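As a next step, the fold was encoded as tokens, giving this record:
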Amino acid sequence: MTLLFPLIASEGGFGINLNLFETNLINLVIVIGVLYWFLKGFLGGMLERRRETILKDLQDAEKRLKTATIELSKAQEELSAAQQKAEKIRLDGQARAEAIRADGEKRTIQAMAALKQDALADLTAEGARLTEQLRREAALSAIDKALAELPNRLDSKAQAKLIDSSISNLEDV
């Protein structure tokens, strides 16, 4: 066999190549080729499944994005409607407050007018009462004065004449 190796090596046939770089390169090409040949189906299937999973996830994400966009637009519409309703309520509240304020002012003016009328009525009544009291006092004073002077001025003839005239006045009535 020793004779065979030198002959084959000298003839360019099979032999042992001791050049480390050439042999590693050849071995590496052989290993990569074998791995490619055997793992092509396994890695290809795994990568295909991964690609399908990623595509499915992307489609799901797009669906969720569309759904979220639709829900966002609905929420924005509802927010806009709620803001409009809140503005309407605020304006109604302001109008109601203004109406209440105006009504309060009107009632205050009416109450003040009523107080003024009551004060004038009280003043008029008090004036009438005082006038009546002064008349009574004047009449009583005049009667007292007349009664005080009457006995001195009336004698029995004048007294009889006064009584007769008073009786005749009463009969006419």
